[in-house]
Amino acid sequence: MAGIWLLPAVSPRVGWFVVITLGFFLGNVPFCHLLPRVFMGKDICALSDDGNPGAANVFKLCGVPMGILCLVCDLGKGFLPVFAAEKMMAAFPPPALTTVGADAFDIRFGLAIAAPVVGHAVGIFRGFKGGKAIAASFGALVGLLFAKPMSPAVFVLAALYILFSTLIKIYPNRRRSILTFILFALIAGGYSVMTGMISVALGCAIISAVVIYKHATAPLTEKELAQMEKGRQLSSTNSASAGK
User: Fold this and answer.
1) Is residue 236 part of a domain?
2) Under 8 Å CB-to-CB from 37, ≥6 apart: which residues?
């Protein structure tokens, strides 16, 4: 991404193609699969219950230091393409939109926001077995904190996860993530549209669709089945108590 400052020498179309394409391929780099395997000889996809190459499984199976390293890498691969795209906006402002905040109207910026998340979910370097893209999503949204105007989307996503993990506990985790990203798309996307940040709304919509799809189509794990059964039993108990 360092070459982004050289892009004013090329056309805007080429520059945006490079940024979006590199963002997609950077998103495909499976740090959570590669780093534990190289440094610890562990295949977290084979060892984990869900086979997901994600930071949560690295923390669980490889410990905190490796978990932090992988988490930072996944956040970084979401952050860097968005940060580079913001430099693109400065180099190639949209035609007839040269006022402060004009970057918000460039749809290409929305594609750049989503590119690393889509790449992580696709997983071309792992036989198209990508991850669920939560960390990459947070990384991309952190990048929006440096945009002009700044987008608070990352705070919306974080607040929803905290809400559904503490005050309103939702199990299994896939349901929590699906509900979180549905509400995130509505809240962050709606706010972005109302404030004129069309490209950010597009990026949030694509990110949400990708994460929801990955969670909805992932095979159920034994832990999730146990959580669902426990929930049904609790619901039956509560219904029986209410009927007395």
Assistant:
1) no
2) 43, 44
Which amino acid is residue 202, in one-letter code? L
Rounded Cα distance between 110 and 199, Å, is 4
Instruction: Answer whether residue 231 is part of any domain.
Output: no
Q: Into how many domains does the chain fold?
A: 1
Count of beta carbons in the 10 Å neighbourhood of residue 57 = 23
Query: Which run of H or of E encompasses 234?
Result: helix 222-243
Q: Contact at 8 Å (CB) between 35 and 118?
A: no
Is 242 within the bounds of a domain? no
Sign, CA dihedral 36-39-43-48, equals negative
* Inter-residue contact 151 to 145 (CB < 8 Å): yes
Report the distance separating Cα 144 and Cα 79, nearest Å: 8
Mean pLDDT per 10-residue segment, the chain (244 residues)? 52 85 96 95 89 90 96 97 87 56 67 97 92 95 90 96 91 90 97 90 97 90 70 59 56
Rounded Cα–Cα distance for residues 130 and 88 (Å)? 28
Give which of 55, 27, 185, 189 is closest to 117, Cα–Cα. Answer: 27
Cα–Cα distance measured from residue 33 to residue 15, given in angstroms and rounded to the nearest whole number: 30
Q: Distance (Å, rounded) from C-alpha 91 to C-alpha 59? A: 40
Q: Does residue 235 sit within a domain?
A: no
**Residue 73 sits in which domain range?**
2-226
